[in-house]
Amino acid sequence: MAENVTNVLMVGVGGQGIILASDILAEAAMLAGLDVKKSEVHGMSQRGGPVFSHVRFGPEVHSPVIGRGEADVIYALERMELLRWAPWARPGATAIYADTDMLPTGIAAYPADIDDEIASRFGRVVRFDMRELRSQINPKAKNTVLLGAVSMLTDLPLDAYAQAITELVPPGTAEANLKGFEVGRRVAASALGVRLESETS
Fold first, then answer.
1. E-state strands within the chain
2. How confident is the model over 79-114, as pLDDT tens digits?
3. How many helices (H) and strands (E) does the chain have?
4. Phi/psi of residue 76, nearest 5 degrees
5. CA dist., res. 61 & res. 82, Å (int)
6. Which keywords are on file for this protein (predicted)?
7. Domains recognised in the chain with CATH numbers
8. φ, ψ for residue 69, nearest 5 deg
9. Secondary structure element (H or E) that encloses residue 165, with its range
10. Residue 140 class from Cβ within 10 Å (0-12 exposed, 13-18 middle, 19+ buried)?
11. Which helix or strand (DSSP H or E) is residue 20 part of?
12. Is the whole-model pTM more than 0.70?
């Protein structure tokens, strides 16, 4: 992470909640007292097109855009979008992704070895098997589930994430989203081989 700036690139397709997830991450960083810059594109979001958001935070951030080869983490709610954006990852970067297939606009089919291809391009991988997690999470909370994994790779306080989630998710969904966040932390802790610290609730 260059100059104490954390670069998180968040990608997916329209309707998956990428923009909300990036808003939560940016708000959590601001609540932690950091400088935050964010850039997003979602013009095709209503037609299944790609949606992406660059989130950068640290003591001082000059640009909202993550350059090629600079992302510390790529968070993806769609596998082909993760591969599309893989060149933006720095060497040894972490991929956090849901194994959801929504066939982005312009893609005819998925490679048979897509998960192996993803693993070959990143230093560490946290893969979410959404079928396996179906009984543990609200399917509409997938974006905050993956944010739980992001929290394992940043120094932001857990209460900052909890406050941002509570403030920004749709009314009546905070509990489901906070639960999803904790499920994401547990999955990431197992995948990364790290100890899970205190919970948000």
1. 6-13, 35-41, 50-58, 71-76, 89-98, 124-128
2. 989 999 999 999 999 999 998 777 655 566 677 888
3. 6, 6
4. -135, 130
5. 25
6. Oxidoreductase, Pyruvate
7. 2-192 (3.40.920.10)
8. 80, 15
9. helix 158-168
10. middle
11. helix 18-31
12. yes
